[in-house]
Write a structure and sequence with these properties.
The structure is a single chain. Helix content is 38%, strand content 24%. It is α/β, with parallel strands linked by helices. It has a single domain (3-320), classed as Ribokinase (UDP-N-acetylmuramoyl-L-alanine:D-glutamate ligase, 3-Layer(aba) Sandwich), CATH 3.40.1190.20.
């Protein structure tokens, strides 16, 4: 089993949706990723918390087998984000961001983490992402996420980081912004030229797109049709956690493996959006995921094969000829 090293924010969030408003919820990219990926893989976390961080929240991760040796605790308050969603729930509107102890975060990788085979650089300052890569010993697979703020403020550093990774996870808006390409297919190909072997586009309620630079092959799938959307916060991070934990169970990776890993990530993130903050992802089990995966595969299946579609078009072509 490959161990995953994740570096990201460990936070508390205040979230307002059209129906619910809650304060001081457990959040942060590293938390969402760890809760998701720990269902399948061994996870090592690097982050920083303040002295207000609840012991019960540390125990939650410990009980899932997450290694917290890289989690720094310093005087002050934990990173806090406040945001709201409009009726469509498509995009979060940031109301307040208090970096607190995260403002001076200097990621130090414990010796026991330096041989992690898989590294995921969650959405943080690309300078910090590069610092992490300098401290690890030849990981087999490196993935990263980013956001519009870093694209606008530290694009050069971000591009340097992207050139050193294998998998980039990013949403459509960010992909267009980073490449100056409106057509998402062109944008994906440009992103691949920057270095990564695989590009994963997170499309929220519309699912995801994956791209393999070697074969120039695209793979597109819908999201699981969730009936009760409560809060989309953290869905992208739990998708990444599911994706990389699936890959951690394998020795090597082909594009077919990436496809299956994306489907697993898609299923895990479908649970996340059914609760506020991390409340749903921290309670799901492998049996829950297995049952929903079976349901999802039924939804996307077109009989036993696509031969009937090919037959119809072939018959028409033969008639025309």
């Amino acid at each position: 089993m490959n161990k995953i090293l994740v570096v990201g924010s460990v936070a508390y969030d205040s979230i307002e949706t059209p129906k619910i408003k809650k304060e001081h919820l457990l959040g942060g990219s590293a938390n969402y990723f760890s809760l998701s990926s720990s269902l399948l893989a061994s996870v090592n976390v690097v982050g920083v918390i303040g002295d207000d961080y609840k012991e019960s929240d540390l125990e939650l991760l410990k009980n899932r087998g997450v290694d917290l040796a890289g989690l720094q605790k310093v005087p002050g308050k934990t990173f806090h984000w406040s945001g709201k969603y409009e009726e469509s729930m498509n995009e979060a509107i940031t109301l307040e961001t208090h970096l607190n102890v995260f403002e001076k975060f200097n990621p130090v990788i414990p010796d026991s983490y330096k041989d992690s085979n898989i590294v995921f650089l969650a959405n943080i300052d690309p300078e910090l992402q590069l610092q992490v890569l300098e401290q690890v010993n030849s990981p087999k697979l490196v993935g990263a996420d980013t956001m519009n703020y870093w694209i606008q403020s530290k694009k050069e550093t971000l591009l340097k980081m992207i050139s050193k990774i294998n998998i980039l996870t990013i949403n459509e808006t960010e992909a267009r912004m980073l490449t100056d390409e409106w057509n998402i297919n062109n944008a994906i190909e440009k992103l691949a030229e920057m270095g990564p072997q695989y590009i994963i586009i997170k499309r929220g309620e519309y699912g995801f797109m994956a791209y393999d630079k070697s074969s120039k092959e695209f793979f597109v799938m819908p999201a699981f049709p969730v009936r009760n959307l409560v809060d989309p916060t953290g869905a992208g991070d739990t998708f990444a956690g599911g994706l990389f934990s699936y890959l951690a169970s394998l020795k090597d990776w082909s594009f077919d493996d990436i496809k299956r890993a994306c489907i697993h990530g898609c299923i895990v993130s479908s649970f996340t959006v059914e609760g506020m903050g991390t409340e749903k992802v921290k309670s799901i089990t492998l049996k829950d995921i297995q049952a929903r995966t079976k349901e999802y595969l039924k939804i996307i299946q077109v009989g036993s094969s696509t031969s009937s579609i090919e037959d119809v078009t072939s018959k028409k072509l033969n008639m025309l000829n």
